[in-house]
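Lab manual, section 2.4: Encoding a predicted structure.

Procedure: take the sequence of the chain (250 residues), apply the prediction step described in section 2.3, and record the output as structure tokens. A sample record is shown.
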Amino acid sequence: MAAVEYKKDGRIGFFTLNRPEVLNSINAELSRELGEAIRNFRDDPEVWVGIITGAGDRAFCSGADIRGFHPGQQEAREERVRADQVWKPFIAAIHGYCLGGGLELALTCDIRIAADNSRLGLPEIKVGVIPGGGGISRLPRFIPRAKAAEILLMGQHIDAQEAYRIGLVNKVVPRDQLMPTAIQWANTICEAGPLQTRAVKEAMIRGHNMPLEESLKLEREMANRIKDSEDFIEGTRAFIEKRKPNWKGK
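Recorded output:
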């Protein structure tokens, strides 16, 4: 059985972490398969938005599978494609436990939707390690630094409503509405041209740490690139003709 199930439905790619018996914890196999699936998604012109979720009812992802760790062992890390290295948008559909490496995975996504039974946190500090998969660096970029410090230094879980209150997730929904909502949001994104959405994501991520003038320059460069595309012509023509555009991704 695959540790990650990847399937396509229309313009949406679905990534399901598929180890529900261990709360979808991350081992080497899952990490490798997820990287391969994201690369497949990145290189496929037919899919425009990705949704990442976890199998079963108990967890999005509970973090690293610590059963495979041993004292003094150095984890072998090979460079794998992450969601925030791909300019196509990603949505994390979170339910149940979203802890450690699971939250770090969700932080690589552009949008996070949480079921009302979600529990989020970075508890690594309580088991003798630190959130070394991006949690320390990314969390203070998404929420106030003081709240990030609280989560990181105390290792405690927060519930979905608190995650929404501090801006860690975009929306909280009943558990049975999680995937329908994620799909609805993905379809809304797909109503815009794929070149435009990728340009927005790229400019947003690359420009985040730039001085304002450099970020504005990057915006202008991306806007000029879009104006040279077939989709720019189609989008403006469709607006004038009061019809839905037929995007080509060109």
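Check your result against the sample. The first helix runs from residue 28 to 42.
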